[in-house]
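Z., the sequence and structure:
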Amino acid sequence: MNEMPEDINNELFASLQCLFIALPCLRPYLDRLAWCTAAMVDPPAWCGITSTHGGWPVTVSASNDRARLADQEQYNLGQGPCLDAMRDGEIVEVVDQELDERWNQFRCRALDIGIRSMLSLPVNGVFRRPVVTLNMYSERSQAFMGVDRQRAESYANLASRTLVKWVRDCTQARLAQELDQAVRTRTLVEESLGILMDQHRWDSAMAFRRLRTRAGNDARRLAVAATEVITEATGRPPIEPYPFGLCPSEPPGGVVKAHPPVVPGPAPTLHSHNGEGTMRIGAPTHAPRPG
């Protein structure tokens, strides 16, 4: 059997990854994963979970605001352990941030935030390529050594097997429903990026960076932020996107269906030192402790 060309294979993987992280049924699992990963060391670390949306990094869950901010700093600078781990699929460790000379810009910001050591672990999906990375942060140097590192690596491997098993065991009807919702979310995000690029003459990378900041660096709020951008630009809620661009010739009842208004709850502010002012966090500021 002929192998799929590499460029097509890469595009399929990127598309699957964008859909995968947006599946609503995975949200409780990702929150639990972030909390448990942070609690593996004593004293507890912080953990952010990075994935990508359309090629741009975004945090899909975090154990607290400090982990989310640490992730965000790397995204904004375009450098750091979590980005290298996601790109290369290899574990990246920082034993002591004060002595590590890699990523000079992020090194300064990490020390300002209070990070002395880091461990970024790729979690592979169905194609044996990173779907997310677990980013562990600590105020102590050498926080992820010996048994702690072995435990973290075992946990990342377990997470990989769990995600693959979920995809294999998921019923066709449930997976179709989840993917349908994920496709709708991606359609909203892409429409809002087009609006931001046109309004501000930004390129796509800057547009997504601004949208991500508006969403509080939370992948689950991207759809909320995108809906707000579209509503502000058009004066009405966005038209509900049909999966894969398929739209009936006449909507039911002769009325085009629109998304219900999205009203996010109260959001605390998180002060960032990246020159972009404050970052609104609309999701819970920490992952719920598993019961």
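The chain has nine helices and seven strands. Residues 157 and 186 are 28 Å apart (CA to CA).

Let me know what you think.
H.
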